[in-house]
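Data availability (excerpt). The following record was deposited with the supplementary files.
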Amino acid sequence: MRKLVLFVHTSLDGFVGGPNGEMDWIHVDDEIFDYVGDYTDKADTALYGRATFEMMENYWPTAADEPDASKHDIRHSKWYNQVMKVVISETMRGRDSNKTKIISENIAAQINELKRQEGNDIIMFGSPGAAHSLMALNLIDEYWLFVNPILLKYGIPLFKNVASRTRLKLVNNVTFSSGVVCLRYERLA
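Predicted structure:
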């Protein structure tokens, strides 16, 4: 069975975005990109909420074509263009395409069906609203939390409406030179 893996940056006090969704506090660099890229290259499906998908769709399809494209932009753009994209959205209902599937209803059943299909892991990047829905349904199998050394005090919480007593096991932790720490947890059955 395929795993659904959430990749998300969080502040030390547990926020994934500022009060208005700001992400200017998130630290990313080549060290983090390379670490994540080694895992994402093996995944064949990306899962997003609508807002994150629209942000990704506006950048990644052509990011590698820019004259000043970084190594990461080239690598992730290639991956993005090859994988299946699944979007949890009521407002995008009926806008499926060749490489994009929209889930607007029966989220648990459709995600479980996706997990039963042949293939590699399903990666979810950020998408706090969709992540909250999946947490409430206990559908996220792994959490990769990139803890940034900052306290925001206010913002969009990482955990909201989680399934009661979701037990996790720390699988790995990596400290990057920037001070960002990746905590990788598996959900216990």
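Summary of structural features: The domain at 9-158+172-182 is CATH 3.40.430.10 (Dihydrofolate Reductase, subunit A).
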